[in-house]
């Protein structure tokens, strides 16, 4: 296929161009969301990180979500806490798969975040992960697994990551 024949929303040819967009409602979410970024980095998945708030920067969210597919992103990981509308609003404005990470809040320990993210109306899905660090790690792994469906090299790296994890679990507790 010649470059001229590529569809308008074809991914960039640059191998280092981000495939996963990690967005979060506040810089205070980074302590949680960095685990998604570190997981993707360990698997060699190009990604980007942005602070995009559904409430404080709605215009930024609109622009980001609307442009995401055209920029070559394949998956969005969205983390937010409290009234956590970011993943759902992002999902409403992009056809890309959106994985939601409930960030643990001070007041309600992340139950507010979880329920805000998980209870989407039928028609606009958000794949909701666990509250906090585990959810961020698993969002990274799930994004990698989605991409690995069409990327054998990444699938091999994911297999190796799992094998290393298995090998690192001791048989005895002490
Ligand atoms: C949400 O409000 C963010 O996702 C964050 O989890 C929470 C608190 O934000 P900050 O007040 O710490 O900026 O929008």
UniProtKB/TrEMBL annotation:
Q: Which family does it belong to?
A: Belongs to the AIR carboxylase family. Class I subfamily.
- Binding site residues for substrate: 26, 29, 56
Q: Cross-referenced InterPro entries, in alphabetical order?
A: PurE_ClassI (IPR033747), PurE_dom (IPR000031), PurE_prokaryotes (IPR024694)
User: What protein does this entry describe?
Assistant: N5-carboxyaminoimidazole ribonucleotide mutase
The task this protein performs is described as: Catalyzes the conversion of N5-carboxyaminoimidazole ribonucleotide (N5-CAIR) to 4-carboxy-5-aminoimidazole ribonucleotide (CAIR).
Q: Which reaction does it catalyse?
A: 5-carboxyamino-1-(5-phospho-D-ribosyl)imidazole + H(+) = 5-amino-1-(5-phospho-D-ribosyl)imidazole-4-carboxylate
Q: Which EC numbers does the record give?
A: 5.4.99.18
Query: Where does this protein act, in terms of pathway?
Result: Purine metabolism; IMP biosynthesis via de novo pathway; 5-amino-1-(5-phospho-D-ribosyl)imidazole-4-carboxylate from 5-amino-1-(5-phospho-D-ribosyl)imidazole (N5-CAIR route): step 2/2
Q: Where does the secretion signal sit in this chain?
A: none
Q: Which residues form the PurE domain?
A: 18-169
Q: Which UniProt keywords apply?
A: Isomerase, Lyase, Purine biosynthesis
Top class in the EC scheme: isomerase
Domain of life the protein comes from = Bacteria
In its UniProt record, a GO molecular function of this protein is:
lyase activity
User: What organism does the UniProt record list as the source?
Assistant: Roseicella frigidaeris
> What are the GO BP annotations of this UniProt entry?
'de novo' IMP biosynthetic process
Q: Which HAMAP family match?
A: PurE_classI (MF_01929)
């Amino acid at each position: 296929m010649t470059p001229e024949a590529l569809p308008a929303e074809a991914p960039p040819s640059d191998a280092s161009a981000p495939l996963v967009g990690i967005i979060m409602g506040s810089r205070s979410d980074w302590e949680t969301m960095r685990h998604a970024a570190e997981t993707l980095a360990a698997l060699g998945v190009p990604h980007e990180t942005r602070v995009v708030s559904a409430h404080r920067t709605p215009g930024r969210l609109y622009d980001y979500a609307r442009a995401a597919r055209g920029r070559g992103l394949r998956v969005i990981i969205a983390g937010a806490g409290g009234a956590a509308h970011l993943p759902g609003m992002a999902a409403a404005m992009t056809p890309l798969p959106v994985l939601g990470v409930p960030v643990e809040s001070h007041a309600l320990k992340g139950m507010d975040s979880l329920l805000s993210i998980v209870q989407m109306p039928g028609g606009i899905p958000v794949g909701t992960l666990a509250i906090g660090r585990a959810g961020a790690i698993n969002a990274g792994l799930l994004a990698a697994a989605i991409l690995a469906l069409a990327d054998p090299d990444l699938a091999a790296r994911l297999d190796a990551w799992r094998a290393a994890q298995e090998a690192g679990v001791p048989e005895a507790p002490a």
